[in-house]
Amino acid sequence: MKLALVSLPARESPEALPLGAACIAAAVKAAGLDEVECCLIDAGLGEAPDALAARIAASGAGLVGFSVFSWNREVLSASAQRLRGSVGGMLLFAGGPEAGADPQGLIAQAGLDFAIAGEGETAVVLALKAILTGGALGAIPGLALPGASPQDSRLAPPEDPATLPSPWLQKTIDPKDCGGDIVWELSRGCPFRCAYCYESKGSSGMRPFPMERIEAELDLFVKSGVSYAFVLDPTFDADPLRAAALLDLFRDRAPWIRWKFEVRAELLDKALIRRFAALDCSLQIGLQSARRETLDAVGRPGFDRALFARKAAMLGAAGVSFGLDLIYGLPGDSLRVFEESLDFALGLEPNHLDLFPLALLPGTELVERAQELGLVADRLPPYLVSATRELPAQDLLKAAALSQACDRFYTSGRAVAWFLAATRPLKARPSSFLREYSSWLSARGGAGPGDPRSIQTEQLAFLGEAYRAAGLAALLPALEDLVRLHTAWGLALAEGEESLLDLSYEPEQVLGAAASGLAAFVRSASMLRESWYVLPDEDEGARIERAHPARDRKAK
């Protein structure tokens, strides 16, 4: 029997590996089911259900499992329906968060034979054994059959990580085939119970994988030339002592790997921050809202704005790159509160800021309390909120426009190093500045191309109009130098691109202008008007050197 395990990522990303499907395949192999041959099928972004179904049918699989999330439910369900109508005798099932939250709805929508609710390694192995021997499926914990009552649809017991085989060590996924990028699971579960998250239901607490397995996997990654690792744990620093031991291990055995971790800022201490600083890493931190009452209502109690700001400042002082998440549409947050949260977040100078609307995911606490909290959301995936008691539909659209403006100007525009320096002379709150930018873009017919140089042209045009309107034209040469230098520096570091710039001031002085303030810088600095190269550098990442007049290059 051939088992095809089908995945579809949310987007093209180094973090889009089909790790869940690989874990199932590894469990099947470890169970000694020699009669079952597993294959992993990755659906392409934008692939039509008919095309995907044809590809699955061509694999020769007699059993097909779909890994279903909110972002791929419609496509994978449609593909399953096509298979049901065209291939006789094929058994179809699904796992993943959607199967755990809504097993009967997914079974009916996709025409499935069963669904796996909860972690799937043991349940799938037991289901395969039953299918091979003609046994009954109904008694398998976590397995939902068509027509079962909600009371009969229960989650599979949490797996014991110490008993699970590694898909990496088994070569179910070969890190050499991943382009240098891997997704790594070091533990399962989460100690927190956020009301908007799938983890709010089921078991609580963390279940770590054994250190012996982690060390063996790390050795494999090192031998395979892995250069980037996204650690999948939702709260890497939930156990600070274990986190410290892992960071020491990574530093000692793989200091060249770039790392990404999800952490809670409140749990960071000086010792952990020093360890993060010793690695090439970035941290993703869920702020979600800067309003304590909102966070209390969604299962994140005790938010301390001053403490959060101190931890962010400690990361910045240590040179640790970090990003923040904000959600708009949380119960209790109006448009004004969202703008205040945005101002607070940008004031912490994150390296990037991810803003997104609340999704009422099936099975989460917020779905059960939606009427009580005044939340209205789409019934179909991705279940985005369409209005709340505090954020009516028209304000939700304004929050979305503000989020898009922030993503373009601040994150995609790589403005972290100069954003506050640029907005302070205008005496504008960051949210007000970005709202004006959003209106300015709309008046011009919308945003242009999304590459850094195109966004820089937009940034400078908007800033030029804003500064001249505010009587600050004298600061523009310094501001323009600051923006161009940082864009060129980022292009040299990230893309290896060379830039030639005509600058009004000496570059090293300009790079310090963000700290001193543009007005103070202009009063003290002397204009030079020279050309400079910003070049990629093998040792330092990037460097600046004065242009030689004989070199025939066009300054940008």
How would you briefly describe this protein structure?
The protein is an alpha/beta fold. The protein is built from 22 helices and 19 strands.
Write out key terms for the chains shown:
556 residues, alpha/beta, Rossmann fold, pyruvate-formate lyase- activating enzyme, six-stranded mixed β-sheet
Overview of the molecule:
With 556 residues, the protein is of the alpha/beta class. It folds into three domains: 2-152, Cobalamin-binding domain (Rossmann fold); 174-416, pyruvate-formate lyase- activating enzyme, CATH 3.80.30.20; 452-546, no CATH class. It contains 22 helices and 19 strands. A six-stranded mixed beta sheet has the order 2-1-3-4-5-6, sandwiched between helices. Helix 18 packs antiparallel against helix 19 (476-494).
